[in-house]
Design goal:
267 residues, alpha/beta, TIM Barrel, six-stranded parallel sheet, three-stranded parallel sheet, 10 helices, 9 strands
Length: 267
């Protein structure tokens, strides 16, 4: 299998002590070394903001990201880290995005990593419209792990049609989060409803910052070109603040083998 381009991880809890991710600088360094060895060149660090982590300010995230970069440089770990956030959707989100206290990915002012409560789904179209009016795009983190979307997977293509991009967790493809999430991740992948694979890593021991095995799994299912797009090219566009097309590929060979999505009919 052709060796992939350098990976870019747009969802990783690498900053220590800000949330349920890394708990020390030593852990962050170990995670960074692990990611770099696995082929990752750039990580957007995404501590939780809002919800239970409303105290995490944009200023603090930016400062700790810079501190982490200095640590990596001191230890000659060739990994670039950039500030971002995993943002819980709530009423104050738009105001805090406008003030830049809530962070967009890579601090580019363009893409917002949106987190739903794990146990339920609520309609995202109003939020997506608000973001669009502000010149921003929503990226839904780990839809394959949301209990509401697992029960109503037909909502996924509707959200994409509304301009929402989809980020699936690497571990979901490997079965880390159970069979239902793995099946949904695989079928989303085969339907062409995935725009990014990312680690959502939390520690060097469990939920690690590894992408290569997921890239291999994706390449076997939808081809190397698509796998590179999801792990390398599309996330690199996010880092650069560039657009990512909502309809990135079609896997025509697997148009829903007996399952839950069907491609929406043309109007």
């Amino acid at each position: 299998m052709t060796r992939p381009e350098p990976f870019v991880d747009i969802h990783c809890h690498l900053i220590p002590g800000m949330d349920d991710g890394s708990q020390s600088w030593d852990q962050s360094r170990a995670m960074a070394e692990m990611a770099q060895t696995d082929g990752v060149s750039t990580i957007v660090v995404t501590p939780h903001q809002l919800g239970n982590f409303t105290h995490n300010s944009g200023e603090a995230i930016r400062a700790k990201t810079a501190e982490l970069q200095r640590l990596l440089d001191q230890h000659t770990i060739p990994l670039q880290v950039l500030p971002g956030a995993d943002v819980r959707i709530e009423d104050s989100m738009l105001d805090r995005l406008h003030s830049k206290d809530v962070l967009t990915l890579a601090d580019q002012g363009r893409h917002v990593l949106l987190e739903l409560p794990h146990e339920l789904y609520f309609p995202l179209e109003p939020v997506l419209k608000q973001l669009h009016r502000a010149g921003m795009v929503g990226i839904l983190s780990h839809p394959e792990r949301n209990q509401g979307l697992l029960k109503q997977p037909r909502l996924i293509p509707q959200l994409i049609a509304a301009g929402c991009l989809m980020q699936v967790t690497c571990g979901s493809l490997m079965g880390t989060f159970g069979s239902p999430s793995q099946k949904m991740a695989e079928q989303m992948l085969e339907q062409g409803w995935v725009h990014f694979l990312a680690t959502d890593a939390h520690s060097p021991h469990a939920r690690r910052p590894l992408m290569h095995r997921a890239w291999e799994r994706a390449a076997k299912r939808v081809g190397t070109e698509v796998a590179n797009r999801l792990c390398c090219q599309n996330p690199a566009r996010i880092v650069a603040g560039q657009d990512v097309p909502a309809d990135t590929y079609r896997n025509k060979s697997s148009l829903f083998r007996g399952g839950w999505f069907r491609r929406p009919k043309a109007a």
